[in-house]
Amino acid sequence: MTENITSVGASRSESGVSALKGRTGAGAPAEARGKTTIADTVVAKIAGMAAREIPGIHSLGAGMARAFGAMRERVPGGGGAVTRGVKVEVGERQAAVDLDVVVEYGVAIVDVAGAVRTNVISAVERMTGLEVVEVNITVDDVHLPDEEEEAETDEGRVR
User: Fold this and answer.
1) Burial 118-154 (b: 16+ CB within 10 A, else e)
2) CA–CA separation, 19 vs 81, rounded Å?
3) Are 99 and 120 within 8 A, CB to CB?
4) What is the distance between the alpha carbons of residues 57 and 49, in angstroms, rounded to a whole number?
5) pLDDT of the chain along its 159 residues, tens only?
6) Whole-prediction pTM value?
């Protein structure tokens, strides 16, 4: 992750005023009056959804995160599935994203990682106006085709 997240780079309106950090007063355009704050969880959800859209991504989250996430999903109100494996730092105008992913066996990991970066940056910047300074990807596992069949077989025996 980067340490300095608050340098220049937010999207600007035609008047030169940041859409995230506006001006006040009657002279300012209506869309720039006030300040917009975007929570880390919002950016994490956007990044998680954008990463999952890429073919070749099986799931997000390291082994333990996936195990705890599966238990959390069973608890009412536990949620967190969209942000599992996603960590973000959000500043006033910039964001940095860390992703833990599991890829499908047989895909070119470098190509999938590039597609994930492109999609995450595009989605976060388009939806939030924040500049994404980096997307760090850790490939924690490779999902093998026969792993799903084994899981279904075990699940069928226990009821």
Assistant:
1) ebbbebbbeebbbbbbebebeebbebeeeeeeeeeee
2) 30
3) yes
4) 11
5) 444 444 334 444 444 445 666 667 778 888 878 888 999 999 999 999 999 999 999 999 976 544 444 554 555 555 568 899 999 999 999 999 999 999 999 999 999 999 999 999 999 999 999 999 999 999 999 999 887 654 444 455 555
6) 0.71
